[in-house]
Write a structure and sequence with these properties.
It is a single chain. This protein is mostly helical. The chain has three helices and no strands. The radius of gyration is 14 Å and the shape is globular.
Length: 75
């Protein structure tokens, strides 16, 4: 997937989130990434979500990744 397409897909997924706590976590992650530059490691994100938040994110990913949007395949 091209970089711009990936960005648009990410924006689309974020627009579907209606949980303020999840949005706050995402904002926090983005700020960490911006301030850390290219030295960011996935280890920095370990343990930032509760079990319930992780399950919610997992469900959101499963639902969105298993959904086919025919309009998204227009050339």
């Amino acid at each position: 997937m091209y970089t711009e397409s990936r960005k648009l897909h990410l924006i689309d997924e974020v627009m579907k989130i209606d949980n303020d706590a999840v949005l706050a976590k995402l904002e926090s992650i983005v700020e960490k990434l911006k301030s850390a530059g290219s030295k960011t490691s996935f280890k920095e994100f370990a343990g930032i979500w509760t079990k319930e938040e992780a399950e919610e994110i997992e469900l959101i990913i499963k639902e969105s990744c298993e959904t086919i949007n025919p309009q998204g395949w227009i050339n």
